[in-house]
Amino acid sequence: MGHEVVALAVVLAMGCSDGTMRIPGTLQGPVISLRATQAPALLAFRYEDADAWQIFTGATTVDVAIAGPYRVAVVCRSSATSGTVQIRELARTPDDGDTLELGCGPAPAPFLVTGELQDTADIALGLASTSTSSGAFEMLSTPGTFDLVVLTGDLFNGYDGAAIRRDVPVTGDTSLGELDLAHEGRVATTATTLGATNLAAGERLSVSGVLDTGTTQVWLALGVFDNPTVVPLLPNAALRATDHQRVQVSASGTTPGGLTSSRRVTRDYHIGDPTAFTLPEPLGPVAVDLATYRLSATWTSLPAYDTLSVARQSFAEHRFRSHQLTLTRSFIEAFSLTSATLDLRDVPGIDDDWLLDPTANPTYSLSVTGDGASAGIAGVAAIATAGSR
């Protein structure tokens, strides 16, 4: 109450064309830039000590002057008729940075990229990716300059080699020609087994890996196949100083109450680094209260964290609904919170069709994340009680 929401730059709804929004007023205080790759179905902002939400429509970027703790709600759909709806509410303070990436689907990819490769491989260029079992391939790309990454073999059985062509420009339809992996500098990967120093009794270990060149990201391993603790890694000489080869070591188990527990740690990794990781402490006892469209979680203590998230999901008959509330540590500490409630129905413009399907046994979860580590719990609850809202 008493706060003025002010956005800078141009407003799409006022006849300008760069997808950003302005609300007339006087700029006061720090500014948070809300950025989406495509215009959300709904974007809303309010201060924590106010009841009224400010609704933004038709924009991909909104720059808002902020004067205290605030919340942002964003609804993402892949299309107007899509069965997938993802809603996120984020609770933050001015100390949490000046940019908030909201996602909302990939950027438009208007350009066709083609090539030929006489090998079985997965191929990625920026956000575009495809697979080939020998022969011609094609994929749709956004404009820009990207690293072309080719991983030979396959994700299920383990990649045995990799080649990277740096700085490929895409300004229109692009032919990569026939790829000669020897000419492209193909290197063999090294199958590396990773472990944990503090795995608890009954926990199951898995390892995943990602290569991020700054313009292109590819999975190296998912940790769900025949060798869940093995990840194929590129040799150090194949990596630039700006590349990030990340591994994630995860443990999952079951709590005394029958929920699924998880804890994981993610680190940049080079061949020769220690293979044993220390997992974060598990999440302590959490009391969960569920109603049809509401999830409340209460805790007494938390492991080290930067953000806390509570979430629910439902899937039935090609209708996927995902709701998530994420609170930053600074927000939690500002109000000395020991509980969080996910209930999106107070946001103006939330369509009933975007809400969970309570008959589809929605899943729920609570997790904390910080410094490349996370811990959480998850469960399934059948909620179809009349009047339980």
Summarize the structure in short.
This protein is mainly β.
List the defining traits of the structure above.
389 residues; mainly beta; Immunoglobulin-like; 4 domains; twelve-stranded mixed beta sheet; six-stranded mixed beta sheet; 1 helix; 30 strands; globular; disordered N terminus; disordered C terminus
CATH topology of the largest domain: Immunoglobulin-like
Number of strands: 30
Unreliable parts: 1-27, 383-389
Largest β-sheet summary:
12 strands, mixed
Helix and strand composition category: mainly beta
* Count of discrete domains: 4
Rg computed from alpha carbons, rounded to a whole number of angstroms: 23 Å
Tally of separate helices: 1
Shape: globular
Strand content: over 45%
Mean pLDDT: 88
CATH class of the largest domain, anyone?
Mainly Beta
Distance between the termini: 27 Å
Overview of the structural elements:
By secondary structure, the protein is mainly beta. 2% of the residues lie in helices and 52% in strands. It has 4 domains: 6-103, Sandwich (Immunoglobulin-like); 111-188, Carboxypeptidase-like, regulatory domain (Immunoglobulin-like); 191-245 and 267-276, no CATH class; 286-380, Sandwich (Immunoglobulin-like). The strands form 6 sheets. The chain has a 12-stranded mixed sheet. Strands 10, 11, 12, 13, 14 and 15 form a 6-stranded mixed sheet that branches. It is globular and about 60 Å long.
Task: Please outline the helices and strands.
Elements: E1 6-8, E2 20-21, E3 31-36, E4 42-47, E5 54-56, E6 61-65, E7 70-77, E8 84-92, E9 99-103, E10 111-125, E11 128-141, E12 144-154, E13 158-170, E14 174-178, E15 187-188, E16 190-193, E17 195-196, E18 204-212, E19 217-221, E20 230-233, E21 244-254, E22 260-268, E23 276-277, E24 286-290, E25 295-299, E26 307-316, E27 319-328, H1 329-334, E28 339-342, E29 363-370, E30 373-380
